[in-house]
Design goal:
Elements lengths: L3 E2 L8 E11 L5 E11 L8 E4 L4 E7 L2 E2 L6 E2 L3 E4 L8 E9 L9 E5 L2 E5 L19 E10 L5 E4 L2 E8 L3 E12 L6 E4 L2 E8 L5 E8 L8 H18 L7 E7 L6 E2 L4 E5 L12 H16 L8 E2 L5 H19 L2 H20 L11 E2 L14 H30 L3 E2 L1 H12 L8 H4 L5 E9 L4 E9 L14 E8 L8 E6 L2 E7 L2 E5 L3 E7 L6 E3 L9 E4 L3 H10 L3 H24 L8 H11 L6 H7 L5 H6 L6 H18 L1 H10 L10 H19 L3 H13 L3 H11 L5 H14 L3 H12 L6 H9 L9 H6 L4 H13 L2 H4 L5 H16 L1 H8 L10 H15 L6 H11 L1
Parallel strand pairs: 2-12, 18-19, 19-21, 22-24, 25-33
Antiparallel strand pairs: 1-23, 2-3, 3-9, 4-8, 5-6, 5-9, 7-8, 10-11, 11-16, 12-15, 13-16, 14-15, 17-18, 20-21, 25-26, 26-31, 27-30, 27-32, 28-29, 28-31
Bound molecules: (3S)-3,7-diaminoheptanoic acid and zinc ion (ZN).
Amino acid sequence: PKEIFLKDYTKPDYYFETVDLSFSLGEEKTIVSSLIKVSPRVKGSSAPLVLNGHDLKLLSVKVEGKLLKEGDYKLDSRHLTLPSLPAKESFVLEIDTEIYPHKNTSLDGLYKSSGNFCTQCEAEGFRKITFYQDRPDIMAKYTCRVEADKSLYPVLLSNGNLISQGDIEGGRHFALWEDPFKKPCYLFALVAGQLASRDDTFTTRSGREVSLKIWTPAEDLPKTAHAMYSLKAAMKWDEDVFGLEYDLDLFNIVAVPDFNMGAMENKSLNIFNSKLVLASPETATDADYAAILGVIGHEYFHNWTGNRVTCRDWFQLSLKEGLTVFRDQEFSSDMGSRTVKRIADVSKLRIYQFPQDAGPMAHPVRPHSYIKMDNFYTGNIVFQSNGAEVVRMYKTLLGSEGFRKGIDLYFQRHDEQAVTCEDFFAAMRDANNADFANFLQWYSQAGTPVVKVASSYNAEARTFSLKFSQEIPPTPGQPTKEATFIPVVVGLLDSNGKDITLSSVYHDGTLQTISSSSTILRVTKKEEEFVFSDIAERPVPSLFRGFSAPVRVETDLSDDDLFFLLAHDSDEFNRWEAGQVLARKLMLNLVSDFQQNRPLALNPKFIQGLGSVLSDSTLDKEFIAKAITLPGEGEIMDMMAVADPDAVHAVRKFVRKQLASELKTELLKIVENNRSTEAYVFDHPNMARRALKNTALAYLTSLEDPSYVELALSEYKSATNLTDQFAALAALAQNPGKTRDDVLADFYNKWQGDYLVVNKWFLLQSSSDIPGNVENVKKLLDHPAFDLRNPNKAILCLQTTIIQVYSLIGGFCGSPVNFHAKDGSGYKFLGDIVVQLDKINPQVASRMVSAFSRWKRYDETRQALAKAQLEMIMSANGLSENVFEIASKSLA
Ligand code: B3K
Ligand code: ZN
């Protein structure tokens, strides 16, 4: 496999101006014809034209209407090369290929999902459709003619506007689409099948009426109301916040059951994984509703950030993804609670991004090289969250208005261009005459910076000093790092817990006046000191408010300081953070007690601290739910020299049970006071109420006390929506035994007809931490509703397979105690699955193999077992480049 480097980027020798595609879709084969107007970048160029192509059967190539003979071109398994071309300002290239979508289980390129044709081209799937310069800096205007059997495929969709349609002989019909905007081929899309649409309209603020359509099988249409609501909310929000209007008369969304990722932003024809479109109160949880809102927003926002302005090359992925993830985070914040959304996003960063940045796949926001670009879309749960943090820092530094000015300039300069991260940086800088010092390091250095903060108060001089030092740990290929620009939002609390009004700060020989209750310190060097003047008493500093930079922070704050911040900080995010820091410290100490066979005891102050948050009626209920949730096992393992999944698991369970037992009166009150018999409403107050009630219920049920088990059962039975019902099921499933088995069986019986709900049922069991879960998961593979075992069956009947794999296999790897079982059973299970799955779908297989990537973090026995599986995978026949890249980098 070949590694591709950013430093090797060169401009293309040829540009494509227009592309006319024609698809004749069939059951056995599909014929793709393309007619491309090509123009050399340099007049009179004699460079060869190299086209990418993968798994294609070439039927014919013509240049200026003339058929090329075999010796006139070169064909290998990945390229079609045309060595001699007319020395003209432009010429016409025509290529016919044959492809087999019904055999395409990679879900990349053109494939079939439950009988319908659909496409996925990002990053490099277009080369599985036809020979093309498959790179994002080739931007062309497209037309697309789709022809298919009319009864099997009554709906024919592609990008842009419908120009004409009609019947042709043999029971076939066609549709001709034209996209007026230039686009890279990764944004091309085609859908053909039996679909019905939910229709609506949106009038843009300049008065354009846009027709909105969400396509699904007819029986699913009732479940698309929330998706439509989300789309309209996103369209309005982008106008209000960024002044960005939709630019065509039609916007289509199609939901398909088989999809590698969450969704795809193809121009005017977004394609979605069904689980991110379909929702009803009975079949989707609050988390699903929130995810749908966020992802519908995300893909819609790409219309400007990604589609109108796109990436020059795939190393610039963050240009569109970091920015668009940031935009969807802001959208969801504005639609719900800003603090709670921030907490959720930072948790994801800690659970997924930070560990990756400390492992063999660590790469900067803008990678320097890749073997398979797909591997850089890390995880279907969250990706580019670091890129979004970088964009957020511009906003923190510039304020909302300054950030908006930067965005406006970015579009003024680059509309309909393919550009780089520096272009975005320059727009932000130039629009604000800003000094961004060494900010660009965020794009090129991998690894999470560790920032240490030491504070000291001088009573005589009435000054308070904060000394920062930063260090970025080495990562593969980057042994040493430079300092980067870290914005630190700071407030100082007086002894009553109120913010002190800051008057001035001394730094680097200059005194800066402030006059507000918080300020941004610009930390740009390895070591740096800031001194606040006129501070009447020793304050408690609240650092990195709102998580102002994606770093790990180590402070000299005492436990008392942290309890004080938990109780008083005006920055709600930092109240939550103080509780998390306390919990991490406390759990880490307990882990060492556990390892040394000392009895475990929970600090009563911690119980008290959480207890007062629990009964503080002025707080947002979802905030309380987050504040009483302990850091995950992975977060604790990340802090250990040698990760010990058994000890961490035992300790987390112990702390949970202790809290539950000490706070049971309060928890019970919460469950009782937060029920509702009203119909399900998706809004923040109701979601917050359910979140708090269900968190409390889970705590209580963990005690295995018959009265609480009874309570959870009755919540399960009386629930009027899936959020409450599933939460009660999950609470009961914590404890092995007959009640668990019965309620799981009851739930399956109830929902076996709905594959999205069944997938949740799989996920709940596979990610369970009950002892010896590997055996249960193996049994689930043989469950009639699961569909990977027989690859042939999977090929014929892809439906639901991929989401199931994520649920069953991905879920299993998410439970450290079972995946890392000391007898190696979890590793062996995953190793076998990866080898099987790689033959069906390399993108998904490589995501699964990532679970091994941090094997060196564990003890020697586990290391040897995991390494053996990685080696077994590496020796498999016909290994994909995707899995090769992850497995080989993990072993290196
Ligand atoms: N841009 C797509 C990513 C698709 C990548 C596929 N390998 C999805 C998104 O941004 O939501
Ligand atoms: Zn995106």
